[in-house]
Here is the input.
Amino acid sequence: MELEMRGKELTEYTYDLSQRIILVTQIRRVILVTASVLLVGFAVYWLIKDTPMQGFVMEWLNLIIRWAHVVVGIMWIGASFYFIFLENNLNRTDGVRDELAGNLWAIHGGGFYFLEKYKVAPKTLPKTLHWFKYEAYFTWISGFTLLTIVYYMDAKSFLIDPQIADLSVSTAIAIGVGTMIVGWLVYDGMCKSPLVKKPMLFAVIGVLLLAGVSYFLSTVFSSRAAYIHVGALIGTIMAWNVYFVIIPSQKALVKAAVLGKPLDPSLGKKAGERSLHNNYFTLPVIFIMISNHFPSTYGHEFNWIILMVLTLASAGIKHFWNLLERGERSRFILPVSIVALISLALVTSPAFEKAGDEFGEVSFQQVNEIVISRCIQCHSATPTDDQWNLAPNNVMFDTPQQIQAQAERIMVRSVRTQTMPLGNKTNMTQEERDLIRAWILQGAKVD
Ligand code: HEC
Here is the structure.
């Protein structure tokens, strides 16, 4: 932050004024950049809409924004893990000066680093003070943009599943965005209520509410979109914690230091609570962000329960990890979390499925007919679908060999998790799924 106005003559009024000027300038810049990007985006979109370029351009937009989202997300979570590591490993006793909370030596990239943490603030503020906030903001902005591109601009494919709930596009988007806003308000309200003084109760109620949200979303959205919206809600809480609570309290800290005034200790405490919540959210939210690669989780009939087990177990692992860094060891948290994950995998595994002989010998011809009527609209070198004019993920079922080679994935997507055909756009029946299943269990032979 630029602290140009300093010195004895600085009053609270002039300080606030200078801060406001800085803030307005920053906001103006952000608005300008965002508006130009949106303008260019919309112009391009109108130019290519309904042309063969549409799918292609959307894929590149998806690529670039996803890439940026992952990069800024790594910077955010990386910095936050690093500061938790510092906090857990500070030397707080050995020759530490009175004004310090602790210090720490480290070696990295061929150099030695020495770092000191102050109890409150240094007597004079340094000229350059590094803040860590844009990582969080850009992670949220890029994440929301990605959500818009993938799930909202293409709601019929990815957001809505008519077999789950036959929503209109605008209703579905309103539910998605509404979940994030209402979810934040409820969470923020809980943090401001007396509940926050009882961490155990807070956690239990928080988890129950999250389970409720997961269940609700699994009854309105496609299974994949339900997962990603739970992630979007958690990510929103994390980023807005930074924007609405953590950064303002740091600004108050800096202001008190500049003006030489005592600091309201409740501010630091509030920021600390939010940071702690963010810390436990990290592992679950990262799983959800990569969950669309794992249809056996989101595509399962009890997908919301699976999500809650994964959330609790990964938060448990994070808890163990925090304790470990502080030199404490808990005997049961890690084993319980790992056993929970393994049991989850076992319970949802196909090991106990029935044999697949209910139809007798299924011929490749029968399977090929199903694939032709339900899949190759999209999965072909020459797709006929109105939307997918390139084979999705380059998966094509034009030849017997292609179908055979993909048998395992076909089993996962169209039988076990029923996440294909996309949104069941081609109206595949349960009997067809069972036939494909039997054929694969019989060895996926092409005669
Ligand atoms: C309306 C278009 C559409 C139809 C019809 C469709 N798919 Fe897909 N398929 C997609 C899209 C889009 C993806 C990529 C996104 C995803 O993985 O969810 C995909 C991905 C897949 C994948 C995953 C590829 C990978 O990288 O793991 C498999 C397997 C698959 N489809 C099988 C099928 C089968 C089998 C059918 C027919 C029963 C089918 N699809 C029908 C659009 C379609």
